Amino acid sequence: MKKNIPFERILKRVEKPxxxxxxxxxxxxxxxxxxxxxxxxCFPDTYEIGMSNLGVRILYSxxxxxxxxxxxxxxxxxxxxxxxxxxxxxxxxATESGDPVRDFDIVAFTLQxxxxxxxxxxxxxxxxxxxxxxxxxxxxxxxxxGGPCAYNAEPVADFFDVFSIGxxxxxxxxxxxxxxxxxxxxxxxxxxxxxxxxxxxxxxVPSLYNVEYNEDNTIRSITPLYDDIPAKITKRIxxxxxxxYFPDKFVMPYIETVHDRITLEVYRGCIRGCRFCQAGMxxxxxxxxxxxxxxxxxxxxxxxTGYDEISLISLSISDYSDLHPLCEQLLSWTDDNxxxxxxxxxxxxxxxKELMEKISSVRTGGLTFAPEAGTQRLRDAINxxxxxxxxxxxCTVAFEGGKSQVKLYFMxxxxxxxxxxxxxxxxxxxxxxxxxxxxxxxxxxxxxxxxPPSVSVSVSTxxxxxxxAFQWEAQDExxxxxxxxxxxxxxxxxxxxxFHHHDAKVSRVEAVLARGDRRLSKALLETRRLGMCFDSWxxxxxxxxxxxxxxxxxxxxxxxxxxxxxxxxxxxxxxxDCGVTKExxxxxxxxxxxxxxxxxxxxxxxxxGANKLGGEKTWCKRxx
Length: 624
What we know:
- This protein is an alpha/beta fold.
- The protein folds into two domains: about 5-235, Rossmann fold (3-Layer(aba) Sandwich); about 240-520 and about 555-615, tm_1862 like domain (pyruvate-formate lyase- activating enzyme, Alpha-Beta Horseshoe).
- Helix 3 (about 55-65) runs parallel beside helix 6, helix 9 (about 290-305) runs parallel beside helix 10 and helix 18 (about 520-530) crosses helix 19.
- The longest helix has 24 residues, at about 420-440.
- About 45% of the residues are buried.
């Protein structure tokens, strides 16, 4: 293993050798003579970020459960390691074996965020593979993509052979089994395999779909090349989360990662339906795990890892219907073992004193809430369904419980937004500070209020995302975003309030990639020619280079980011069926412009369409 890599020389010259050495406790090693397919699972970012991703951990383990499959991990090397690899002629390699990625049968990329696209090309090039799928040969690996960005894979369609749409625990095993079968029975050619893969539920092969454009650059048609492949690809889901695969051990990193803890997936989906949120739509229907299953999974992971923190994750953890019974079961053994619990996605309208008292991490750390907008009108328009009263109640509970730090997340540039809505952000932050001092006066002498309040306001820029009610909306032009940021900053005069805003230029590029079509592949090819990578990192992102790439490729970024798409237009992602219907999203868009809210799934089924995907333990079933 790794005998061809001179680790003794190169690892002394890089900042974090633990990113590249492998050999971690819990890694899976197999005999290459006993397996029939090798999968290189690539996370297009650093080791620390990739090792924190629960989806990668699940898929790594479930593929390795199969006796004929060996799945290994691959991460994007930092610039210092890239320099050493090129100096010593070392191609991109897998962490477990050290074998070159190009020698694998399947190379799988998880696409978690659009700004990682340049890293995909960076890693393919380091692996010695042709960037364009059309230029790779039959004996080259099959390159497959998955994750949330696969729901609009068109900007990177030219670089991938196939995409997995939806949840991969069952789908990727089925895909790899098809590869093994065709290799064994002698029917394998890359084109034949991709044709068969396109017939599997949840797999999109872009080369088998023809896209035609109108003179105004809108899409005229998206047509499958063969009658035996679907015109629309329906995403795959796990129908019963209690029976879904979940690992009982994790690979333990040698170095600190972003999330060094047990991550326990409580449920998938979201009942809320915020109109800007892609995850809330593409992960429907809502499917919960039972407290008993979750408690058992937590115990097994604690026994195998020794982590002293368990994070209960979902899109909105306080919407889990059995949260209190789950906490009771976990606390029956975590307190004795000095294991803390954290709930990272609490909503202001469901935060309570009872929850705060039960969760140890809430007693020690700061709290984060996401009102998203400064006025109730705009919160209604985006269907946030959180009121100022909810936020003040949550802050009251936090302050009376000894908290002094509160983080508030907002979004700038949302459809129908006015400057009055923006001013409301500063006013809301001031009210949170005022609430602290009001309670301090009421509780005079209480040690809970000995520290001054600190309210952090973080404002991101709205990005229209596929499969949301706002997928048709335009993003604000940069000069408008800058003007709004300056206006907001001028309103932040309270010394107890700290104001931060995201880089609007990053958000603009992200919007182009989020709503782009296949013609963007030319621009992405230009990014590789300029050596661009790690664009989700501030120190690497270069807006001028992006604009240069778009210009070289003949791409107008405003066409994708700053244009209101017509309701009747064919969208680049219209060949994908995420379960939620376009009709539902259009009706939600109309409601937004009328400031009308839609009740969440626990109150009433709004017929979004996701119930057709099945699943016995879903909110859909409860409401029908």
